[in-house]
Design goal:
By secondary structure, the protein is of the alpha+beta class. It is built from 7 helices and 13 strands. The protein has a 7-stranded mixed β-sheet, sandwiched between helices. A 6-stranded mixed β-sheet has the order 1-2-3-4-13-5, covered by helices on one side. Helix 2 links the parallel strand 3 and strand 4. Helix 4 packs across helix 5. The mean pLDDT is 94.
């Protein structure tokens, strides 16, 4: 039987997720994620402040750490209530740009109403080929995203799925397995293959794929209304939250 669902454990999984594709340094005030081989990726290079005492000192240390590595300082949320009330004055004092996000968390908790496609061949990808790299670089996220996926692929608990139509990559998605919780990511369908039901077919397949390898809770994060409709049809329900999703960063000179 799976462990009882616990929102704090999901938060902890989400916070530590970048450790799969970056290095992590633990400080007395929080966590520093960094990847000097992928400096353009905020997801790979950011701090999380867990202790909101002495925030000014923490921010000074964060700025020094990332600047010493030639990386623009960036912060992600700790997903705790009211943290922005305490952080915002200090972030403004240190000239960080603060961007709020509309992302919501979704948990898979009921059966999918979608179905697989007979025209779509889905398989696990263990190494990126030219077709996938071009799709990621041009259509999905950029060169820095390729580096995230490449490093992620070295971890056995990262499952990248490619959906092929007539031998050509049409859609993709991934699931990362943690202790008790699994995170869905990299969900994308190439523009010329949209409208064929491939995104829904991929999500339906991913859910069954995950069920065969893990009893974990399956969750994802999204801020795209069109994607949310598919996720809800796939059996995901919106989770109530008492926190704000945001990113704070220093502008490039």
């Amino acid at each position: 039987m799976p462990i009882p669902f616990n929102m704090n454990r999901l938060k902890d999984t989400e916070i530590h997720y970048p450790q799969r594709f970056s290095n992590m340094l633990t400080k007395n005030y929080g966590l520093l994620f960094y990847n000097e081989g992928n400096k353009a990726s905020q997801e790979s290079n950011h701090a999380v402040i867990l202790d909101l005492i002495e925030v000014e000192s923490s921010l000074r240390d964060i700025e020094f750490f990332y600047k010493s590595k030639g990386i623009h300082p960036c912060l992600y949320p700790s997903l705790n209530p009211k943290e922005l009330e305490l952080l915002t004055p200090a972030l403004e004092h240190h000239n960080f740009v603060l961007k709020l996000k509309q992302s919501e968390f979704f948990l898979h908790d009921h059966e999918s109403n979608l179905r697989e496609s007979q025209d779509l061949k889905i398989e696990r990808v263990r190494q990126l080929d030219i077709d996938i790299m071009e799709t990621i670089a041009i259509d999905y996220g950029g060169d820095w995203t390729i580096k995230v996926v490449e490093r992620h692929l070295t971890h056995p608990s990262y499952h990248f799925l490619g959906g092929y139509y007539q031998g050509e990559l049409a859609t993709m998605a991934s699931v990362s397995i943690f202790a008790g919780y699994s995170r869905v990511d990299d969900v994308f369908t190439r523009e010329k293959f949209r409208g064929k039901g491939f995104a829904g077919a991929m999500m339906h397949h991913l859910i069954n794929y995950h069920r065969n390898i893990s009893q974990n809770y399956l969750y994802l994060q999204s801020d795209l209304p069109s994607a949310v409709k598919i996720y809800e049809k796939a059996g995901f329900s919106r989770l109530p939250k008492d926190f704000q999703i945001w990113v704070a960063y220093k502008e490039h000179n």
